[in-house]
């Protein structure tokens, strides 16, 4: 039940963020979500964010890799001040996880391969986390992106081997 509620909240949050970014009208019933949308709006304004692609539930942000045999849909690709290309992911859980960073590293690799786009910065936005330092907004710069792409490559290599092992030997 808790997981379903979180998933519903995440789906609604992504929908509302997309509408906000596209300048479409929307209504928001919960104070917590309104607070988050204000945070996202301020983040956009402060960083002069201009959305290029925002996941709209179709395949407009679908990326794939023949090399790694993975695919996915990212949340948002934007331009920020300084003409930086920013890959943004919105998370609605209460915990920060290293898997979120690996996910961005994988998306960055896929964007390079599938769309021939390089990413200058990552941004993870967590509505329910306020550490006082960053207000739930985590920026990753080029050196960190290269590091996360390296981790993502190693993860994908291990996963390829694991899949091959499973194919030959069955599941554990």
Walkthrough of the structure:
With 172 residues, the chain is an alpha+beta fold. Helices cover 48% and strands 20% of the residues.
Q: Could you outline the blueprint of secondary structure elements for this entry?
A:
Elements: H1 2-22, H2 31-46, E1 50-54, E2 62-65, E3 70-73, E4 76-80, E5 84-90, H3 98-115, E6 121-125, E7 137-140, H4 142-169
Parallel strand pairs: 5-6
Antiparallel strand pairs: 1-4, 2-3, 4-5, 6-7
Helix pairs in contact: 1-2, 3-4
Short note summarizing the structure:
48% of the residues lie in helices and 20% in strands.
List the main descriptive attributes of the protein structure presented here.
4 helices; 5-stranded mixed β-sheet; 48% helix; globular; 172 residues; 20% strand
Low-pLDDT regions: none
Strand proportion: 15-25%
Helical run tally: 4
What is the helix/strand order? HHEEEEEHEEH
Shape: globular
For the terminal residues, how far apart are their CA atoms?
28 Å
Number of strands: 7
Radius of gyration: 17 Å
Helix content: 40-55%
Structural class computed from helices and strand pairing: alpha+beta
Please state the average pLDDT score: 87
């Amino acid at each position: 039940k808790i997981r379903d509620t979180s998933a519903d909240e995440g789906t609604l949050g992504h929908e509302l963020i997309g509408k906000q970014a596209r300048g479409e009208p929307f209504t928001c019933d919960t104070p917590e979500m309104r607070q988050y949308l204000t945070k996202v709006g301020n983040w956009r304004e402060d960083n002069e964010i201009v959305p290029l692609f925002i996941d709209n539930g179709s395949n407009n942000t679908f990326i794939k890799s023949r090399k790694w045999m993975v695919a996915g849909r990212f949340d948002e690709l934007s331009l920020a001040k300084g003409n930086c290309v920013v890959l943004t992911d919105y998370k609605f859980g209460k915990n920060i996880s290293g898997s979120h960073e690996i996910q961005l590293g994988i998306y960055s690799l896929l964007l390079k391969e599938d769309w021939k786009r390089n990413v200058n910065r990552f941004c993870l936005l967590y509505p329910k986390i306020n550490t006082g330092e960053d207000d739930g907004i985590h920026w990753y710069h080029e050196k960190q992106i290269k590091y996360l792409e390296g981790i993502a490559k190693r993860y994908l290599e291990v996963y390829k081997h694991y899949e091959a092992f499973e194919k030959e030997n069955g599941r554990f």
